[in-house]
Amino acid sequence: MTSVSETSEIGGVGPSSTERIRKAALANFAVHGTASTSLRAVAATAGVSLGMVQHHFATKSALIKAVDDYVVSFVIGGMAEPIPEPPADSITDIGSRVRGLIAEHPDVAAYVGRAMVDGSPLGATLFDALMEVGTARWELRAERGEVRPDVDLTWATINALVLAVGAISLRAHVDRHLPEPFTTPSQLRRWQEATDDLLRDGLFQHPDD
């Protein structure tokens, strides 16, 4: 039987079944992980039949790949945008991008956090890609004379990445030490300000240096 949501796709109303299924899979993967998520659960979340899921994604592996490809493209695309020229604050610029990702796309952030610690290929792909983007960014800052000459750029990149990914991956523990959940606007703003200050004050040149 064709569901209402499938009928709407035929009529050209709303997102396609493929998009709904991918979004539903991402939401389930973020909470339960890929191993514990069935195609039937994805179909229920998407509001389509199991047959429709299998029509668009023949296997669970194919669905996982589609979600992973989307997440990699989305995350790296946002983080790889050029940083602003001085005197604009590139630390705040990147911090705002990360905060926006967590606030506006919580399923993506949660899935990234899970992937980074569960040993999945997605975690390795994302970490390596973010390292490449981050290294280029810190090298550019060094060329501009923004960072101290003694800064280890490899560890500057790793530390910045760990500060972001660590907060997402350890959110359950972080939440216990905050007055509100980490993902509330006030706590995300507080986290960004603290992280930005740590990176800027610890690694950047200061007028009296």
UniProtKB/TrEMBL annotation:
Recorded hits in InterPro entries, A to Z, give: Homeodomain-like_sf (IPR009057), HTH-type_TetR-like_transc_reg (IPR050109), HTH_TetR (IPR001647)
Q: Which GO terms describe its molecular function?
A: DNA-binding transcription factor activity; transcription cis-regulatory region binding
Report domain HTH tetR-type positions. 15-75
Record flagged with keyword Transcription regulation: yes
| Entry annotated with the keyword Cell membrane | no
Q: Pfam families per the record?
A: TetR_N
Q: Which keywords appear in this protein's UniProt record, sorted alphabetically? A: DNA-binding, Transcription, Transcription regulation
Gene3D superfamilies for the chain:
Tetracycline Repressor, domain 2
DNA-binding positions: 38-57
Q: What is this protein called?
A: TetR/AcrR family transcriptional regulator
Taxonomic source organism: Mycolicibacterium hodleri
